[in-house]
Description:
- The chain is an alpha/beta fold.
- The chain folds into two domains: 2-202 and 316-402, Aminopeptidase (3-Layer(aba) Sandwich); 204-314, CATH 3.30.70.360.
- The protein contains 13 helices and 15 strands.
- The strands form three sheets. Strands 1, 2, 3, 4, 5, 6, 13, 14 and 15 form a nine-stranded mixed beta sheet that branches.
- α3 packs across α13 (384-402) and α9 runs antiparallel to α10.
- The longest helix has 22 residues, at 281-302.
- The radius of gyration is 22 Å and the shape is globular.
- The protein starts with a helix and ends with a helix.
Amino acid sequence: MWRELAPLGRNEDSGGYRRYAWTAADTDCRAWFRAQAEARGLAVETDRNGNQWAWLGDPLAAGAVVTGSHLDSVPDGGAFDGPLGVVSSFAALDELRRRGAEFVRPLAITNFGDEEGARFGLACVGSRLAAGQLTVEAAHRLRDADGITLPQAMEAAGHDPGALGPDPERLARIGAFVELHVEQGRALDLTGDPVGIASAIWPHGRWRFDFRGEANHAGTTRLADRRDPMLTYAETVLAARREAELAGAVATFGKVAVEPNGVNAIPSLVRGWLDSRAADQDTLDTVVAGIEQAAREHAARTGVDLDVVRESFTPEIAFGHALRDEIGALLKGSANRDTGHDIPVLGTGAGHDAGILSASVPTAMLFVRNPTGISHSPAEHADENDCAAGVTALADVLEGLACR
Ligand code: HGY
Ligand code: MN
Ligand code: MN
């Protein structure tokens, strides 16, 4: 499975993945998902919001146990973020069949669309739409860098955007959603465990800072006569690091767009995107407010105009204790048999579809050790033995939740 998926959407130069929502790479990944599901006799459907579901048993019965993740990536992302959860779900089903497990609840394996928001800027579009956390109007307003709207992109990929909307009936039929994901940090590497359980997801968001100045000639314009938005952008990036360090949070400007983007032209506009996350809401608010204040003070001093727009936001997610503890009990002494201690329960700063769905459905997450903690990079990696331990753990969980 892994080898078949590996080449899809992979950029030969960077070795990273460019599996953006509703592109050809996404279509290839969706075809791979369908083939894997049909090869296992699962009934495949694409829901109104473009999420794929592969069913064993009656999709309309209550109490379904659902697992899966996403297949889309960030620009030049790694091979594991998302796909490890989907591949492990199919592998766990194969394991349960080898065990002769008898399913007493429907099981579904999912591929949630557009989790990374790499193309349209909003994370978890497929699960937010299904959970009613993104309105159809707001979804229709999403545009990519070329001005293509989400509905246009969906249509071009063969999915009817007219059907977009909340899916409460579908979510109400889910008894539990468990997402396995590569850890995007080194907590398990530090505790020496191959598998961990999620406790919470930090509140996090994305803010677009538009710095508007005055285009002019780089060679003939006196420094005193300039209204250069690049300077205010630079000061804001440094302020982001200062505010995050002060608060024990994180803040990143990882994406910037400059107009007209000429070497010998003072920019008219610099757009910078801030990703900031913190262990609690108050801290996050303080960090973002501090960054914005530093930006506004510098802008005022240099005659630059500033607009700040929050483009994506996920509040703090605390996974429900009942399912979390049930999973901990199911995994006692199995996935971490070599460590002799219970599976660690750890928080994360990374967002996930499970976080979005936790408002509507009992959800839990399993993490698989990432020895370097690197993610959102072609260098992202998990050892095969740890991935196998993740499959075993997921199979144990699904057997406990869905089988006699
Ligand atoms: O950005 C995130 O936390 C996730 O990878 N979408
Ligand atoms: Mn990711
Ligand atoms: Mn992910």
